[in-house]
Write a structure and sequence with these properties.
Blueprint lengths: L13 E5 L6 H8 L5 E5 L3 H9 L3 H13 L2 E6 L7 H12 L3 E7 L3 H5 L9 E5 L5 H4 L5 H7 L10 H24 L4 H13 L7 H8 L3 H13 L3 E4 L6 H4 L5 E4 L2 H7 L12 H22 L4 E6 L5 E7 L4 E6 L11 H9 L4 E6 L5 E3 L2 E5 L16
Parallel strand pairs: 1-4, 1-5, 2-3, 3-4, 10-11, 11-13
Antiparallel strand pairs: 6-7, 8-9, 9-10, 12-13
Helix pairs in contact: 3-4, 7-13, 8-13, 9-10, 10-11
Length: 394
Amino acid sequence: MIPRILKFPYHKKSVFLFGPRQTGKSTLVNHLLENEDFISIDLLKTDILFKYKANPYMIRSETEFALKTRGKILVFIDEIQKCPELLDEIHWLLEHYKDNVTFILTGSSARKLKRASVNMLAGRAWQFFLFPFTHIELGERFNLDDALFFGTLPPVIDESPGDSFRTLETYAQTYLKEEILDEALVRNIGAFSRFLNIAADQSGGIVNYSTIARDTGVSSSTIKGYYQILEDTLITVKLEPYLRSARKRLVMHPKYYLFDTGVINALNGRNTTPPAKGSAIYGVLFEHFVILETFRLIKYTETPFRIYHWRSSNGAEVDMIIESSDSLWAIEIKSSHSVRPADLRGLKSFTKDYHGAKPVCVSTCDLPYMAGQVPVIPWRYLFTKDFLNLSGLI
């Protein structure tokens, strides 16, 4: 069992735990509860699912029986989105029995629950999210080149390269292309499948909905809806453009980063040869890794940071902007060991427009150095507590 950073306080309140399939939700919960007395309900089992679909009240009857014999009870329900009807019963139990009953509810996303306008327990359950492994969780087992090529989904960590390819291809085909299609309830399956391939190819690029719409043969509003599906199911991380005006931000183009580099490579057919260091693909995957890692750690630690991208009207860009209530960081991501001041013109442009912003370049270098007026740091430094006084990322 690789230790996870996420620790949710299920002794205090019921929780929802959401995350893409195969990120280890069930494994984590069962590990946390290994010394607990609890009821486990796995809705992936067809007979169990049919039982509660037909008679949702059974969860209430079974829980009340357990309460009479045990006094307090903890109930773990896996894949809650498969049977949203249970949430009304759970709501009643939480209201009626207060602190004597606690639920841990896991699922691949809240989209099915919200789409059905079902009871989300109105604050009676906290929400948490689980992602593929971070470099901190993997510790000495982490290898950057492997993470860029295979990603860090739990199933591929201990597999051979050949088996990892098969796992990722299967994941991309059976999960992303079948379950997401089912989730979307789209009529034009061909268009959505084409969209998914384009989304993988353009992952990390600025999205133009109209251009993708022309390539897939659907409207730009439909493409926005497709991206919303990927975001709701935690398959993409959305970076809005950084602007002073929130209203202007709504009409600018966002970036979307698919949630795992191994899955991106599988969708793009890059599963035979690792990307060469110094190549454009290596740089793109390294940028994905740093941004996804930042996003995951901010979520896990519940720190009040927001991340954006930035592009000026004349095309100057900064890969990642991190904003807190009192700090603004402009972060350029370079996969090269050696970064020159000329490579950091986007940071110069940003700091001209946003006085007080702190520029930094994250690189694959071994030791920090200065490129002109900009510090260039090893990527691991970004996730340390003393990184240029930017505390709180871990």
